[in-house]
Design brief:
This protein has helices at residues 15-18, 36-49, 65-70, 83-95, 110-121, 137-150, and strands at 25-29, 53-60, 100-107, 125-128, 154-157. The protein is α/β, with parallel strands linked by helices and 161 residues long. It starts with 14 loop residues before the first helix and ends with a strand.
Length: 161
């Protein structure tokens, strides 16, 4: 017969919170601006949990071998990512008092790199929120499928994902 452990009702912190500080909220996009709903979910989650926000712009590495060797900073052309809008999202988070970190990660497999980032940072929540009008439906579905299968934390994906 199993036993029930009765705890006093006036415990200040629940047992799960005593184990350690919760991980950050990761707000990720795929080289496009971030959806407004995803931004709201990530900001509110980070504020409510009292954790940092990591804004990750996951960029697919183009196959320009010479550019990669000689000038990696010019590997992604300005029209291939929406950097100013992603920076604006990070600035809005910081203005709301959220500790914010902006990362631009270039990889041949950006979703696998995102999952590695989530694992390394021990994220508590991953918000995958690219603006759906600016990304192909097939790319978003493939990313969604991989994230749902392999993420080691809670996941919120932009609607229609």
């Amino acid at each position: 017969m199993s036993q029930i452990l009765d705890r006093p009702r006036d415990i200040a912190t629940p047992p799960a919170a005593r184990r350690g500080r919760p991980g950050p909220v990761v707000l990720a996009t795929l080289s496009v601006r971030i959806d407004a709903n995803a931004e709201r979910v990530a900001f509110e989650s980070a504020i409510e949990a009292g954790v940092a926000l990591v804004v990750a712009n996951m960029i697919t590495m183009p196959s320009y071998p010479t550019t990669l060797m000689l000038a990696p900073e010019f590997m992604t052309l300005p029209h291939e990512e929406d950097l100013d809008e992603v920076r604006a999202t990070a600035a809005r988070a910081a203005a709301r008092g959220v500790e914010t970190e902006l990362l631009r990660i270039t990889s041949r497999r950006p979703i696998r790199a995102l999952l590695e980032l989530v694992s390394e940072r021990r994220a508590g929540l991953l918000v995958l929120g690219p603006e759906v009008r600016l990304i192909s439906r097939m790319r978003l579905r493939a990313a969604t499928r991989l994230v749902r299968r392999r993420a080691e934390c809670l996941v919120w994906i932009v609607p229609d994902g």
